[in-house]
Amino acid sequence: MNLKSSLLSGLVLVALACPAPGQELADNWHQWRGPNANGVSDTADPPISWSEDGNIKWKVSIDGQGTSTPIVWGNNVFVLTAIKTGDKDSSIPDANDQPKTNFFDIKRPNETRAFVVICLDRTTGKEIWRDTATTKIPHEGAHKDNDFASASPTTDGQRLYCWFGSAGLFCYSLDGQKIWQRDLGEIRVGSSLGEGCSPVLHDGKLVILRDHSGNGAIEVFDAKSGQTLWRKERDEDNAWATPLIVKHSGKTQVITAASDFVRSYDLNTGQIIWQCSGLTGNVTPCPVVDGDQVICMSGYQGYSAISIPLTETGDITASSQIRWKIAKGTPYIPSPLLYDGLLYFNQSNQSILRCLDSKTGETVFGPQRIGDLSNIYASPVGAAGRIYITGRGGTTLVLNRSKQFVSLATNQLKERFDASPAIAGKQLFLRGAKYLYCIQESSGSERQQE
Q1: Which of helix, strand or coil describes residue 119?
Q2: CA 34 to chain centre
Q3: Rounded to two decimals, what is the model's pTM?
Q4: Neighbours of 107 (CB within 10 A)
Q5: How many Å apart are CA 307 and CA 299, to the nearest integer?
Q6: Per-residue pLDDT for 21 more than 90?
Q7: CB under 8 Å, gap of 24 or more: what pairs does 395-400 form?
Q8: Signal peptide location in the record (predicted)?
Q9: Which of 89, 241, 431, 444 is 20 to 30 A from 146 in CA distance terms?
Q10: Are 406 and 398 within 8 A, CB to CB?
């Protein structure tokens, strides 16, 4: 893969960034899967119940397409989208005129997309700024349930990092000034399913992982300048699992989950610390860390979950060092939720829930069919002793965080939700196909809407 760069003038710890003065990282949702990269906020307390007519602080239309989770920093909410411009390349046939080239009959677009970064006011939902990072015609299509803005942004409270896959990597100031950008080249995802792995930030280093049907790679950048610090090729097929960064055993480990191996890289050098096989195909759930072990899952072409110690070196596949393994009921797309020793996850993309003891892998409850939810793409989140699970049909189930299945509320919105929720303070953010909702206990004021 050709690497091109264009520099403009000018991640536990688990992927922890340095918060800006006066702001605590725990109070924000600065990255995919939140402050601790496990889906939990230790400080948030969002509502239990809501509807289209109740506890909606604001609801704004987000033009274009995007399934990335919004992130929250201070009074800013950042969201990415890809917007059709109407400009077409006549040399590329319309989709109906292209031959079938893959199983899903995914065609190459011939219309330019604007890849857009939007900053909203957290209190009102009003747009503070937006910038078109770049415009281009995607070099290949994406699955109908994916899009061209599916990676969540991340921030260290000083700069904002936005990854649009083959359309480029972009760094902004929090007030919308583009600082640098990198073109990392185009990749070919098997069956044209689309890209989607989110960037991870730690100690001034930004990690980008690209596993696909060609020659994949993991690349680490200086977050301030955008310069490459190291890059390692990877021989993995399609995978979309966002890396996990954890400091353990004297090293900062970048843990990547994929079908051939789960690997731990030294963040500073790029050297492999340990590796372990055992997952199935198309790995999408991101790893979670619990003390001195990391838990990885996959749920396509079989089920697998494996708990791996962070203390080992070398290839530990099938060794006695593996803490526990299961081969049933694991998720395909959603990531698991690790909440104070309890590990929650759904089966495949179905509304069937399991809860395990994260230390032992023993079943706490489940399989449990969970109410009126349709298929699930969004990952569950947790706060204030509660768990929030959102289905594609607009239903969110709220549960007690407990060793029994205890439902507290079922909430319905008139939207399709593929993006995972974000939570901060008294608010829950749900990004749908058309709208971004800010859910907060009503104070009697009228809902604000754009």
Answers
A1: strand
A2: 9
A3: 0.93
A4: 20
A5: 15
A6: no
A7: 395/371, 396/421, 396/430, 397/370, 397/371, 397/372, 397/373, 398/48, 398/49
A8: 1-26
A9: 89
A10: no
